[in-house]
Design brief:
With 305 residues, this protein is α+β, with helices and mostly antiparallel strands. Helix content is 71%, strand content 8%.
């Protein structure tokens, strides 16, 4: 096979169907940018889970005098010193517990004022209305239920709360957004494949005389198909390159500069450049193979070679 002939045929095909080629490039670029974005979103959620779950605390809130009057969980009155000592002793014996910190009502009041000092409710609260609590760091955040089962409903305990539940709601929302992006990506890939098939068929139809002559002189099927397949592969590869550019620019402007989320949201551990660079070869490989395979199967039926 003469490489010069194949390359010239590729150039002719791309020029003849410039509008459809452009549509293929754009659709492939958008679909693969969404594909790469969804992969990076999954990495980001996993990174955030590892970062935040490591900081999850389970809180055991103890009954105070006001709870004894209004909360059925504290019907037996405010927590006693003996009950607090027993709870602490039992916590230290549990193998799932890594560390226990006690927070007095005065400390809870101080922390509340620091976080919500501007709210109208803050001015009406007094330290004795705040609850004492034990803040428990678990070796495995998934073992929250062990603490809840052991202490929920015990005398002197108002409630057992797990911060992981709040984080699960956040990560559930992020995962939902990620799956929505994947659904859009799938639709864009279908559109891109349809455009590739139509572009290849239009190109083959416009050169039906040349392909007919090539069949008559005994050219092999692959020799006839190769220019059309490589046209689709080149258009797809250009789209893949554009998609990689989108991801690099998005990472640069959204996280590092422009929006600069890494500076404004210090509590979030963002993915690094290494996560982006590891996705680029996959995107480029997909952009090359997907159009080539689509063109190959379309031509088998259309050209009957």
């Amino acid at each position: 096979m003469r490489a010069q002939f194949v390359l010239s045929e590729i150039g002719v095909g791309l020029r003849r169907n410039l509008t459809m080629t452009f549509a293929v490039v754009v659709s492939v670029a958008l679909s693969l940018a969404l594909f790469g974005g969804s992969l990076l979103m999954s990495d980001q959620v996993s990174t955030m889970k590892g970062y935040w779950y490591d900081k999850v605390n389970v809180s055991i809130f103890l009954c105070n005098k006001s709870d004894a009057e209004s909360d059925p969980h504290c019907a037996k009155g405010a927590v006693t010193t003996e009950q607090k000592d027993q709870i602490l002793s039992d916590l230290k014996k549990m193998t799932v517990v890594e560390k226990v910190a006690y927070e007095s009502s005065d400390q809870a009041y101080k922390h509340y004022k620091e976080q919500f000092g501007d709210s109208p409710l803050a001015s009406s609260l007094t330290p004795d209305q705040m609850q004492e609590s034990y803040r428990i760091k678990l070796k495995d955040p998934q073992k929250y239920q062990v603490i809840a089962t052991a202490f929920d409903g015990r005398d002197g305990v108002q409630s057992v709360q797990d911060q992981k539940g709040i984080l699960d709601n956040l990560f559930g929302l992020l995962n939902g957004m990620n799956w929505a992006a994947r659904a859009v990506m799938a639709m864009m890939l279908v559109v891109a494949l349809m455009l590739i098939v139509n572009t290849v068929r239009v190109s083959a139809f416009s050169r039906r005389r040349e392909t007919g002559i090539m069949r008559l002189v005994g050219a092999s099927g692959f020799y006839i198909q190769a220019p059309f397949i490589m046209e689709a592969a080149v258009a797809g590869l250009i789209g893949g390159g554009v998609a990689c550019g989108f991801l690099l620019v998005a990472r640069y402007f959204i996280i590092d500069h422009g929006l600069a989320l890494s500076q404004k949201l210090n509590l979030i551990n963002f993915i690094g450049w290494d996560a982006v660079f590891t996705k680029l070869p996959l995107i480029l490989a997909t952009s090359l193979l997907m159009p080539a395979l689509a063109a190959f199967f379309a031509l088998r039926k259309y050209l009957k070679v």
